[in-house]
Amino acid sequence: MFRLLKYLNKISFLFILLVIGLVILQVYCDLELPDRLTNILNAASVSQGLKNQGLLTEELSQEYRNEILKNSLEMLGFAAVSLVSTILVGFFASRIAASYSYNLRKNLYRHIQNFSMKEIDRFSTASLITRTTNDITQVQMVVIMTLRMAISAPAMAIMGIIKAENIRASQNLSLIVVIAVICLVLLVIGIFLLVMPKFKKMQEYTDRLNLVTRENLTGIRVVRAYGAEEYQENKFNDNNILLTKTNIFANRAMSLLMPGMNLIMHGTSLAILWVGAYWIAENPIYLGSVFGFQQITMMIVMAFMQLIMIFIMIPRGLVSARRINEVFSSLPSITSSPSPQTSCENVKGEVEFQNVGFSYDQSDEEVLQNLSFRVEGGQTLAIIGSTGSGKSTLVHLLMRFFDVTQGKILVDGVDIREYDLHDLRSKIGFIAQKSLLFKGTVRSNLLYGKDTATDEEMIEALKMAQAYDFVMRDPEGLSMAVSQGGSNFSGGQKQRLSIARALVKKPEILVFDDSFSALDFKTDKTLRDNLRKLEGNPTKVIVAQRIGTIMDADLILVLEKGKIVGAGTHEELLKNCQVYQEIAYSQISKEEWDHA
Fold first, then answer.
1. Could you read off the pLDDT of 22-68 as tens digits, one per residue?
2. How far is the C-alpha of 43 from the C-alpha of 50, rounded, in Å?
3. For an engineered disulfide with 303, which of 115, 144, 156, 270 has Cβ 3.0 to 4.6 Å away?
4. Residue 445, class by beta-carbon neighbours within 10 Å (0-12 exposed, 13-18 middle, 19+ buried)?
C-alpha cells in the first residue's frame, strides 16, 4: 500500500497536512464538550446543594448561573467548530482520494500500455480490467477511511485517556474502559481471522466473472449461432454463485461487528452509570464528573471502534493494493534499446531474418526454426503455409510483439532490438489478421495511422484500399460513425478500412497478416494493383492463404511446422516445392494452372 503513495501529487500532500490540522482541531473541540458538560452539571449540583442547605445567596446564585451560561455558550462554539471541521475533513479527504485514484488509474493504464503480449497473457485482459477499476476503487475507499479516521481515532483515544485521567471519578471507573477495549479487540481479531481470506477470494472470483462476461459478450454471435445461451448462462451462474456465496459469508461475518460493538459500548455506558451511582451517593457534588467521564469514555470507545473499522477496511484494500503492485512490478519484457540506433541512410524498407528461431515461454517446442531470408526495399514478400505453420508468428516477431529466442531480425540493416520501439513501429504499417476498428468515426480511425493526416490523404488511402465507395456513399462521409469493434461494417469493409488506416501512415514496410481473406477476388486483385502504385514503393509482407493473392510476389516463403520448406517465385515453387504444389492444386487444378 505504501508503495502506491508515490502516486499522490504535491498538492495532495499539502491538503493532507491541512486535513491533519482540521482533524486535530475537531478532536480538541469534541473533547472540550465533556469538560464543559462537567462544569455545567457540577455548578448545578453545587448550587442545588447550597440551596438545600439554605446557604445559596443571590450573588452566588447569579455567579453559578453565569458559569452555566458561559459553559453552555462555549459548548455551542466548540460544537460549531467541530461540525465545520468535520465537513471540511470529509470534503478534502474525498478530493484527495479521488485525485489519488485518478493518478493511480492513469499510471496503471500507461504501464499496461507498455506490456508485451507475454505480460498481457500472464494477467489476462479481464484481470487487468478488474485491477484498473474495482481494485483501485477499493484502495480509494481505504484512503478516504484513513484520512477521516486513522488520524482522528488515535488522537481521540490518546487525548481522551489523558482527559479521563484528570477527572476525579476516573480512579473508580477506569477499569471498565480497559475491559471494554479488550472486548472490542477480541471481537475484531475473531472476525478479522474469519473474513480476511475471503476478501482475496472475492477479488479472484470478480476476475473470473469479468472473464466469462467479456468472453460471452465478445462472442455473442457465435453463442447464438450454436444455441449455447444456456451453456453460457450456466457458466456465468457457476462463477456468480461462487462470488455471491463468498460475499454473503463475508458480509454476514461483518454484520456481527456492529451489534457486538454497540453491545460493548452501551454495556460500558451502563456499567459506568451503575458504578458511578454508588460513588455519587457518597460524593453528590461530583455528579458532573461521572457524566463527563461517561461522555469521554464513549468517545474513547468510539475511537477504538473507528480504528477497528479501519483495520477491517485495510485488509481488503491491501489485497487490492497487492494486485495493483503486481502489475506495476511486472516490467515489460520488450522495451526500447537504452542507446537506440538509427537505420542506414542508403537502406530503406529492407527486411532480413538471420537464423531466427522462436518458442513461447514455458514451452519446449519451437514455433519457428532457423529462418533465414532477405527482402530488398520495395519488393513483395509472401508467406504461405498450412494452419499453425508459424506465418502470423513470423510477422509478429517483425513487429516485435515478441522477441526472437535465436538469431536476429534486421530492418534497414539494424537489429530491431537496437531500435527505439516507436521508431521501429513507425516504419511499419500493420494490418492484423482480425480487423479491429475503434468506436468513433472513419476519420478518427484513419488518424490512428497518422494523426496529422489531411482529409485529402485519408480519401486517397480509402481509394487505394477500395473503401472509398461505401464510406463516401454515406451522407456523413469521413464522419461516418464506427461502432465498437466496427460491428456496423461487414468483414470485407473492416479489412479495407484497416488497410486504409495503414496506408495513411505511408510506412516503409506494409505487413498484411492474412488481411485479404474477406475480400472477393476482384477487390483483391484491384487492391494488389493499387499497392504497386503506392508512393515511396514500400516493402510489402503478405501472409495469405490464397495462391492468387501472392503469385506476383518477388519472394514466396512456404512454411511447414515452423520451417521454410520452399522459397522462390510462384513459377519456381510450382516446379520444385511439393507443399506449395499441394496448396496450389487444392485451389485450382493442375490443368488450369498449366493453361494459365
1. 888 888 887 777 777 767 766 666 666 666 666 666 776 777 678 77
2. 11
3. 156
4. buried
**pLDDT, tens digit, 9 for 90 and up, residues 62-89:** 776 787 788 788 888 988 998 998 888 8
Question: Containing domain of residue 574, as a range?
Answer: 346-427+543-596
276 and 407 assigned to the same domain: no
Same domain membership, residue 397 and residue 318: no
Tell me the three cell numbers of residue 389. Answer: 505453420
CB-based contact 468:529 (threshold 8 Å): no
Q: Give the phi and the psi of residue 484 in degrees, each rounded to 5.
A: -60, 125
Angle at CA 565, nearest 5°, toward 560 and 569?
115
Residues 360 and 230 in one domain: no
Structural domain ending residue among the three candidates 329, 358, 379: 329
Same domain? For 379 and 278 the reply is no
On whether both 375 and 312 belong to a single domain, the answer is no
What pLDDT, in 10s, does the model give residues 347-397? 788 899 999 999 887 777 888 899 999 999 889 999 998 888 888 889 999
DSSP, collapsed to helix, strand or coil, labels residue 434 as coil
Contact status, residue 404 vs residue 396, Cβ threshold 8 Å: no
Q: Are 271 and 150 in contact (CB under 8 A)?
A: no
Beta pairing partners, 381: 541, 555
Q: Report the SS3 class of residue 552.
A: coil
Q: Which CATH number covers residue 37?
A: 1.20.1560.10
Decide if 139 contacts 199 (C-beta within 8 A).
Answer: no
Rounded to an integer, what distance in angstroms lies between the CA atom of residue 100 and that of residue 538? 46
Q: Is 400 left (phi over 0), alpha (psi -120 to 50) or beta?
A: left
Torsion-angle region of 302 (φ positive above 0: left; ψ -120 to 50: alpha; else: beta): alpha
The label of the residue with cell 516504419 reads 427
Lookup result for grid cell 466548540: 78
Instruction: Write down the residue that cell numbers 498484411 correspond to.
Output: 512
Specify the pTM: 0.72
Copy the grid coordinates of residue 226: 450454436
**CB–CB of 559/392 below 8 Å?**
no
The CATH number of the domain holding residue 547 is 3.40.50.300
SS3 380: strand
Provide the number of structural domains found in the chain.
2
Q: How far apart are CA 587 and CA 581, in angstroms?
A: 10
At position 433, the amino acid (one-letter code) is: Q
Q: Give residue for cell 480487423.
A: 435
* C-alpha angle 184-186-192 in degrees, rounded to nearest 5: 100
3-state helix, strand, coil in the chain (%, to 5): 65, 10, 20
Instruction: Indicate whether 491 belongs to any domain.
Output: no
Q: How far apart are the C-alpha atoms of 68 and 213, rounded to whole Å?
A: 66
